[in-house]
Amino acid sequence: MEKMKKLKIAMRSDLNMRMGKMAAQSGHAAMKVLASHMRPSKDGLRLSNAKMNTLNAFLAAPDVSFSFVEDEAAVQTFLGQADDGQKVIDNGATEFNGIKTVTCAANGIFTEKWEDAPYDCAEDGSERKARQYFIFSRTRPLKKETVCALAAIGCLSQMAKMLEPDTQSDYKQYLISSRTNIAFDSWIKSGYAKIALCVVSDEALLDLQAQFDAMGSTTSLVERDGVKMLAVGPEFLDNISHLTGGLKLI
Fold first, then answer.
1. By CB count within 10 A, which of 62, 65, 187, 227 is most buried?
2. Is 12 helix (H, G, I), strand (E, B) or coil?
3. 117: buried, middle or exposed (CB in 10 Å: 19+, 13-18, 0-12)?
4. 49-102, pLDDT tens digit by residue?
């Protein structure tokens, strides 16, 4: 098994992003770290058995370091400290006046750099059909560092659950199938939108999870510093709007 490293996230403080926006960007950064070790094929995205073992080991005891950096130059400095770093460029659709903007970066989990050109997640797209949801409980006060770490862990947890053994391959590896996971295929190709919402209590969050599970949605309940968060999807909006439509943004 490949020895794992701490997942490190560096977020720009000069952009004055709202908390939910930072959570989404942290999820993007963690996802891009994982995706850079995956390989595209005609039927989806693949991850080697060794790297899947590393991902599962990380998720069993996630070690996430979150820090603020002062500007884009500091993000570049952070990236220069590791050969496996991934930066996030927001397309400016909801903030930054439509200007594409570097928001954050991440590295870690895997010790080895990708061997060839990594899978490049689309930075934007004209369609936003599917979303991933981060739903936080407000039983405890929400802090930016905790929210961002939970979003990263939740996104990776969902990716791990979508990766299934590839029985058609001659090599032992895992696959997120674009044919059987249509929502994921739409999501990854059209900007991998994420949104951060909240409910009033842990009890309300657990009730919401039960409703998602009952309709067959993939969910991950994660906790850090006593704060609970439910990661859902990606899911098509029209499939779950009856559960998410009344929830507030953070």
1. 187
2. strand
3. exposed
4. 999 999 999 999 999 999 999 999 999 999 886 667 899 999 888 889 889 999
Strand pairing of 194-199 and 130-137? Answer: parallel
Tokens of 15: 């952009």
Q: Which of 28, 6, 14, 8 is nearest to 134 (CA)?
A: 28
For residue 93, the one-letter residue type is: A
Q: Would you report the helix, strand and coil content of the chain in percent, each value rounded to 5?
A: 35, 30, 35
pTM of this prediction exceeds 0.90: yes
Give the integer Cα–Cα distance in Å for 152 and 149: 5
- Cα dist from 180 to 164, 175, 176, whole Å: 11, 11, 8
Work out whether the CA dihedral 49, 24, 32, 191 comes out positive or negative. Answer: positive
